[in-house]
Amino acid sequence: MKPDVKQHLQSMAKALNEIVLPELQDKPFALEQANLVVASLNLLAEVQEHQFAYVRQEFDDTRSLLAAWRLAHPEGADPAMQQIVTAPQGDTDTQGLGELAKTVTGDKARLRILMDKAPLPTGSPIEPLLHSYIERQLARETAWLRLTGFIPDASAIPAIANVLDSQKNTPLHTTDHPTYPPHQ
Amino acid sequence: MALADKRYLSDPDIDRIRSAYRVERTIDEALTWKLRRRRGPDYRLPPMAELQARLQAFLLRQIAGPFDILDLQRLSGGGSKEMFRFGLRRNDEQSRPIEETLILRMTPGESIVETHRLREFQIIAAMAGVVPVPPVLWVDVDGTVLGNPGMLCGLVEGVAKPKVAQHEGGSISGIGAGFPPALREPLFEQFVDYLASIHRFDWRSAALTAFDTPAAGTTEAARLGLEHWSRVWEEDSLEEHPVITLARQWLKRNLPVADEIRVVHNDYRNGNFLFNEDTREITAILDWELARLGDIHEDLAWVLFPGFASPDEHGTPLVCGLGTREAFLERYSRASGITVDTEKLHFYTVLNLYKLAILGSATNARAAADRQSHLDVMMNFSTGLGYGALACLYQILKTGGAAK
Description:
The structure holds two protein chains of two kinds. By secondary structure, chain A is mostly helical. Chain A has two domains: 5-49; 50-174. Chain A is built from seven helices and no strands. Chain A has helices at residues 5-20, 28-47, 51-72, 79-86, 97-117, 126-144, 160-169. In chain A, helix 3 packs parallel to helix 5 (97-117), helix 3 (51-72) runs antiparallel to helix 6 and helix 6 (126-144) runs antiparallel to helix 7. Chain A is elongated, with a radius of gyration of 21 Å. Chain B has helices spanning 11-20, 25-38, 48-62, 117-127, 181-200, 220-236, 242-253, 297-303, 325-336, 342-369, 376-381, 383-399, and strands spanning 67-74, 82-91, 97-106, 136-140, 150-154, 262-264, 273-276, 281-285, 292-294, 310-311, 317-318. Chain B has twelve helices and eleven strands. By secondary structure, chain B is of the alpha+beta class. Chain B is 42% helix and 14% strand. In chain B, helix 5 (181-200) packs parallel to helix 9 and helix 7 packs across helix 12. Chain B is globular and about 65 Å long. Classes of the chains: A mainly alpha, B alpha+beta. Chain A binds chain B through residues 28-29, 31-33, 35-37, 39-40, 43, 80, 84, 104-106, 108-112, 115-116, 130-131, 133-135, 137-138, 141-142, 144-145, 148-152, 178, 180-184, and chain B through 1, 3, 74-77, 170-172, 175, 238-243, 245-246, 249-250, 253, 306-307, 360, 375, 377-378, 380-385, 387-388, 390-392, 394, 398, 402-404. Chain B: Residues 72-340 form the Aminoglycoside phosphotransferase domain. Chain B: Pfam families: APH.
């Protein structure tokens, strides 16, 4: 067998488009929902195979940022925070998607605590790293959702596969970091 | 790190959230109701026979004498509330038979935004005669009879988008819808003048008991807005986002004083008014559910949001697809007599994007994740709106917001 989720998704979208939608022209509510299902299937066909790589990249970026933050400002890290950034990361390739996603959600909650409770001093090297982190996250999000029709200038946004490839090849700590005006 | 399961927040967790954010009374009521209801089963669309029976029971309490409900139908669109249309046949005060078409607007399990039906009912009733609005008839505030909170109003003829659009906007919400040149000028003038009428309205004599009044000359109006959306983020987000954190910090540091407290529509844009394509007249201003008493700059920043704009034949971006930014501000100032403050406009641009980002990336996603919406596919799909807003919000914070 050659497992191919994308093929199934594309076949469903085709059947809906060519067979089901024409039968719904006088049923506006059902037609609207069916059109949304088709659009969702097309989006999934582009992104679904990259879900694990997406979450893995979120994990790598977030851990990288948290570790750098602790090294630069150890006084600002709470005990729980110190525990997680010093804990061995283990072989994340063997973690299931759900487990890894849960870890990322927990790490992002810690990042919020740090941002709220341990404001960065002026000139901190973490400030530009944080903004690189944000820009990489936004690049992933807008690429993932570029087919929704809600993302500005979506035609200029690369596919999620390309964004993830590029980010994997240039880890967060190796990127050039943008400048950002100081907080006031 | 233990994270709360937001589908099943305990009563102490809900109390903690309620005490952490100061919001208006009825907004607190609506949000708290949402959290308690979320703990129940997945939402299911009401079967039409069941809904008809509930509607019958509700109307029995409102109408003296016999009546018939005709052809109850679910309407498309309505990402926020479930919408139904039906005919009501009854006798008027002189016992003459009349038939009218009514709209039933009901709160689903959850959707893109949680709002309070009494607020919506009261503000639309108050605006009758000030700007064109649908006639509101009855409201079931807590859903005791209808099953969920709901409101009935009359049908207003008109379309939200021209049959031949100048620019294809979002099909779901009318966002970004453009207008052909012949419609543009007359609609633009009415669009601006009605906004000015809303802002000039003397609300103090109106029956707006569901609304709290922030104090003029203080930052209370801005703070209530910030706390409202921050609470929604806390209740609905699937995970934290650093742009939301940065924005919240910036907003907290930059709360502006509201010189005067006025009615704010809070979703005034293309897609949220009906018009007659032949007479070129706006027939109704819709979607009042987010209205509040606050600072008019919140409305102005919303209207001016580039995401609602669409280009004319020469590529010039038009505010809500209708007129240039300069023309909008000039006409608005003349019609309202209000001087626009650019610093406040900037604050509310950030607050509005914060709100849009939260509704789109958190509330939408939460409704679908917990299977609480009447339109889960739409809720998933329109998370694009939220993440697009997050990207815009970050650009504003990065290029100017943080330096102000």
